[in-house]
């Protein structure tokens, strides 16, 4: 194992943490409907928790309307219940074939709640990135202690690790800034 392999591994893991943050932010509802809002909803499908995306198609014909078409019409009631119990704050209505989800205009208070949620998810991602940095730093220090790398290699590796960490934290901050702007947009 070398400093470069430790850094490459840390970079890969940090990229995954950024991807998770993107998914989390996409699931936070803004004034407009979009299919990714339903990505994390789990439906009780005959006793098995199943992602909504495996049970139905989600279309967004208008900015404030989502139409969900179940593959199995028998799952319609379960899908409606899962959406109602989710943190989207909406009440779906179905006609047996299609479930319609109308998204009301967000109130100022609700927008602020969603911004708090977004900030919490961003902080979770930053914590994950810092944990990855700590593990990588410990791995490099162990390499140096075991004689695998020199003190200079360790110092260079630590500087590179700090740069990688800073870049990923900056990406999280940019995602948060974008999500806040999106939430405040009326």
Q: Could you characterize what this model shows?
A:
- This protein is an alpha+beta fold.
- It has 2 domains: 3-26 and 107-184, Topoisomerase I, Chain A, domain 4, CATH 1.10.132.20; 32-102, Gyrase A, domain 2.
- Helices cover 58% and strands 15% of the residues.
- The chain contains 4 helices and 6 strands, in the order αββββαββαα.
- A hairpin with a 2-residue loop joins β3 (56-62) and β4.
- The longest helix is centred in the C-terminal third of the chain and has 38 residues, at 108-145.
- The chain is elongated.
- The mean pLDDT is 89.
Helix-strand layout with pairing:
Blueprint: H1 3-27, E1 42-45, E2 48-51, E3 56-62, E4 65-70, H2 76-85, E5 93-94, E6 99-102, H3 108-145, H4 151-184
Antiparallel strand pairs: 1-2, 3-4, 4-6, 5-6
Helix pairs in contact: 1-3, 1-4, 3-4
Gist of the model:
This protein is of the alpha+beta class.
Helix content: 55-70%
Please identify which CATH superfamily of the largest domain we are dealing with. Ribosome-recycling factor
Taking the alpha carbons of the first and last residues, their distance comes to 52 Å
Name the helix and strand elements from N-terminus to C-terminus, one letter apiece: HEEEEHEEHH
Radius of gyration: 22 Å
Q: Give the CA-based shape.
A: elongated
Q: CATH architecture of the largest domain, please?
A: Orthogonal Bundle
Counted by DSSP, the helix tally is 4
Mean pLDDT: 89
Strand content: 5-15%
Please identify the structural class as seen in this structure.
alpha+beta
**Count of spatially separate domains:** 2
In the CATH scheme, what's the topology name of the largest domain?
Answer: Topoisomerase I, Chain A, domain 4
């Amino acid at each position: 194992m070398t400093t470069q392999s430790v850094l490459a591994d840390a970079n890969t893991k940090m990229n995954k943490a950024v991807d998770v943050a993107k998914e989390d932010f996409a699931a936070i509802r803004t004034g407009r409907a979009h299919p990714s809002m339903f990505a994390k909803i789990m439906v009780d499908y005959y006793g098995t928790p199943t992602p909504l995306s495996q049970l139905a198609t989600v279309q967004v014909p208008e900015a404030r309307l989502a139409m969900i078409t179940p593959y199995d019409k028998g799952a319609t009631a379960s899908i409606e219940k899962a959406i109602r119990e989710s943190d989207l704050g909406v009440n779906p209505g179905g006609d047996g074939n299609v479930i319609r989800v109308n998204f009301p205009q967000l109130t100022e208070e609700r927008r602020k709640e969603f911004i708090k949620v977004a900030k919490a998810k961003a902080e979770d991602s930053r914590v994950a990135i810092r944990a990855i940095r700590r593990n990588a730093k410990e791995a490099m220090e162990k390499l140096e202690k075991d004689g695998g790398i020199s003190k200079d290699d360790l110092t260079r590796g630590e500087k590179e690790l700090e740069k990688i960490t800073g870049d990923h934290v900056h990406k999280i901050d940019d995602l948060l800034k974008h999500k806040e702007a999106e939430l405040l947009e009326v």
